[in-house]
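Collaborator request, handled under Task 6.
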Amino acid sequence: MGQNILDFLYKTDDILYFPVLIIIMTIAGLYFSFRTRFVQLRLFTESCRLLLEPSEDKSGKTVSSFQALMISTASRVGTGNIVGVSTAICIGGPGACFWMWIMCILTAASAFVESTLAQIFKQKDKDGNYFGGPAYYIEKALHAPWLSIVFCIFLIATYGFGFNLLCSYNLQSSFATYGFYQANTVNLFGNEISIVSIIVGIILMVLVAFFMLGGGKRVVKFTEVLVPFMGIAYVAISLIVIVINFRNIPSMFVEIFKDAFDFKAIFGGVAGSCLVYGIKRGLYSNEAGVGSAPNASASANVTHPAKQGLVQTLSVYIDTLLLCTATALMCLSSGAGRNADVAGAQYVQDSISTVFGSFGSVFITVAMVLFAFTTLLGNLFYVDNALAYINKKKMPSKRFLDIFHIICSVVIFLGTMIPMDAAWAAADITMGGMTLINIPACILLGSTAFKTLKDYEKQKKANKNPVFKASDIDLDINELDLWK
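Structure tokens returned to the collaborator:
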């Protein structure tokens, strides 16, 4: 019975990504890129400037553009940057790196569109806080509240369960390289489970529950400090490994591009090719077009929706072009052996240990702890928004949220004890369901985002600080709560 369930998950995962999602994401990325004249590249400098723009609200009660970026980046930046990339290279091949880069650039345009739409159709609660996301622009602009509910169900399944199962699994797997991991096991459900996994699961469960029971504002403050620090430290260590192994850099790039364009091998086994693994793991890592980041984008207090759309393109770049690339180049330049047996944290630990010895394994474990923790907190921030929508756009009672967060914390504990393939398949499938709803919705509403971008650029050319009014792009104000 259990094996049949696993087989069903694996087959569904394969079909969902090839050909369905790969085709949809590629078409959407190209469409948004050409219609915005490659806004993700053309206005890169402006995106960086907006990141440092001070908040319009001096009271500090609302979420700033930078804070919204940190929330979305906290969810994007996580164990996928380490384990996901490693898995893609070990199983799919080094060419997976190239396809991650290509999809990153294309889907950054999707990130702009979805986050801009989230800002346009956001709402304001009685305390002055903003909220929104795909559920709201699907309901308001497409007039399909039933589809919004389906999207929210997928979001809760993805971020409350699928991603959290995978995240906790990835974290505990970083301990597998240590001798004490294999030396202390117990038989549970017919499988040998390391006692270390159980201990890690318990600690992680308790910590996440503690932070989530403390309220959402604590999440914002915590991630704003921790995300930049952990990202910079990881990139710095990766660069040291790459520089020390600089002689391997030319052959490393040859290997990446040779494998990426080995179409005979790709089409000989598409589901397990570098093309599919690069796209799957890239999407899992940066989440562009999935519909998660717009929930954070909607919370930002900005004068123009395009501002947050532009800022969110940076989150995709930070995740894939910076952190995922750091992992890929560090591993490939190190010369460490790779195969399916070391796929995951171990390949990264083996790579960094070629320079730093035993400290390398410890550093990756610490990085995994930080990445996993912020990812888990960011994931549950999104879940709260989805619960609010289903609850007639009102945040459920504190009692309900506390119980739900405790359940999610228990799921995190269970994730440390499931098989790797099952964890990845569950995350891929639930995320795929969100994407299949969000991307078509964004395509249907794309013209609104394109007009908003033109309005922003028009005001910038007039040396103004862009301020958005719905009437300027002929939006129906009856569909909006703000921007009137």
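The cover message to the collaborator said: "The longest strand covers residues 185-188. The two ends are 56 Å apart (CA to CA). Please let us know whether this matches your experimental observations."
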